[in-house]
Amino acid sequence: MKKRVIQAVRDELQREFILEKPKDLSFGHYATPIAFSLAKELRKSPMVIADELCKKFENSVIFKEVISVKGYINFRLSEEFLDEYASWAISNESEFGKSDKTESILLEYVSANPTGPLHIGHARGAILGDSLYRIGNHLGYKITSEYYVNDAGSQMAMLGLSIFLSGRENVLKVEVEWPQEYYRGEYIVDLADEANEELGAVVFEDEKNIEQLSVWGKDKMMELIKSNLADVDIEFEQFVSEKSLYNKWNDSFKKLEESDKIFIEDGKTWIRSTDLGDEKDRVVIREDGRPTYLAGDVIYHDNKYQRGYDHYINIWGADHHGYISRVKAAINFLGYDEKKLEVILAQMVALLKGGEPYKMSKRAGNFILMSDVVKDVGSDALRFVFLSKKSDTHLDFDVDMFKQEDSSNPIFYINYAHARINQVFKKSGKTLEDIKDIKLENLNDDAANLLYSALLLPEILEDAFESRQLQKVTEYLKTLSASLHKFYNENRVVGEKDEEKFLKLFAMVGVSIRVGLKLIGIEAKNKM
RNA sequence: GUCCUCAUAGCUCAGCUGGAUAGAGCACUUGAUUCCUAAUCAAGAGGUCACGCGUUCGAAUCGCGUUGAGGACACCA
Do A471 and A453 have their domain in common? Predict the structure, then answer.
């Protein structure tokens, strides 16, 4: 819709301009303050310029009226245009909001270490990533979703050791001396029990089995993580194992050598990341030959870029922000355009219950399980609330709030609007087929505004995706639902003379709510 | 100490590519149901957009500084 308007206005004005939505719909559907910026150039008052420009639109088909108010040029779309668009959307619901984007994107998110279940902090990145994936695909982007599995390095060893020691303590019942660092969540005890059943208690008798336990444990944890994700309807297209990429190290290393950005000092291999603004150079290979975490990411990003996407998006926890510059430096040294990589940081989530703060710590094992929260408040509410605040801001929420089934719970409010639409159709005894060809004309202001709001979804989706700010979608759905509730309270539908028109209007609102919710991973309810 | 993110109503937050009177929900006050689900709606009250300076015809929005909150500053992942 916006595209058509921009096109039409550009045809007449023959220059670039800003098209905005007025705060108050009584001003019109779209507006441009272009007369203000032309005032200086033309040495005329903005009001005079706006008046003159308006005349250009007198014969427009898509505008009902174009008027100047205090220097603004306000556009009001014609009923014919809105009606046509609505008819199409109702008949082609699955196409509504689609766009013509063609860029390919590799979207990596979650990538939590397979050393334990997902906690509530992971959920934020997971939900954001999955929703971007859904919306981006809808807009036409060729998006691949990917999970990077950190199945190499010291954490894997620590997982094996933790299961081993827990097995000795809880299964073999022998005295165990715990190291300072180990995974101490209860799930480790469960893992040890499971290992006992599957592998037999013998496995805890010899330290040589620690490695076997770490691989076994990692597989178990990946299964658990996948099921945690499935709880909120998230499924990845592919998983990439860190370990499986290590045989490519020589190739990546050679590229770095060629770019002369690698050096050896104190027996360690360093990457010269300070050349590209990093605070210090970073070690990639330790003195004993073990690669650091960064080495894994060097290979991984080499691998990603070899796959030739137009754009790469990584969603990381905010605590990784210092890591961005060194990875980007590495990408540059490998001979790729590091600007193609975009890192979205998901800020920390602080969970409250009855006003009491929870502290999260994966190491300590007293973190809040994502699965518990999902069980508590449901996938829909969790998804909605996580998306309704910008990802780069801290989020505080009280679990108790989700349990309320009234308007303080936005997902409830939106579903209620959708259910009402369904209910009105039922009462009227009419179907979509009966009303989809009814002309929407001579609508009262409330109806016309509601129709316009419902047709805004496509541009909201595009704006939200491009800016990576999905709270624009949740905000929109709340506002649209509020408009529907307001209309419902002020206008009777069934049995009135405008019944069929209003039914078509409601059908259009229903389409936008359903499509909007679906793209953030929520299925609209037909009945409450 | 350096860097990142943030600061808007009592609370939780929108708004930020500069533009019309700064919005919503919760909580508070009042009202609406012979009528499609009142799980809703309407009205009222509530603001130094942290503070200062600057850019501009115009700043919550952009720049600089100050204050405050959280986070990151590994040869851990």
Answer: yes
Give the pLDDT confidence of A467-489 residue by residue, as tens digits. Answer: 888 989 998 999 999 999 999 99
Of A46, A62, A77, the last residue of a domain is: A77
pLDDT tens-digit map of A130-188 = 999 999 999 999 999 999 999 988 889 999 999 999 999 999 999 999 988 888 788 89
Q: Which of residues 135-164 of A touch strand B (CB under 7 A)?
A: 150, 152-155
Q: Helix, strand, coil shares of chain A as percentages rounded to 5?
A: 55, 15, 30
**Does the nearest atom of strand B lie within 7 Å of A33's Cβ?**
yes
The answer as to whether A484 is a domain residue is: yes
Cα–Cα dist A506/A488, whole Å? 10
| Full residue range of the structural domain in which residue A443 is found | 82-100+407-519
Domains identified in chain A, total number: 2
Check whether residue A186 has its CB closer than 7 Å to nucleic acid strand B.
no
What's the CA A139/C1' B19 distance, rounded, in angstroms?
A: 30
CA triplet A485, A487, A493: central angle to 5 degrees? 110
Separation in Å: B58 C1' and A315 CA: 38
- Read off φ and ψ for residue A352, nearest 5 degrees: -120, 155
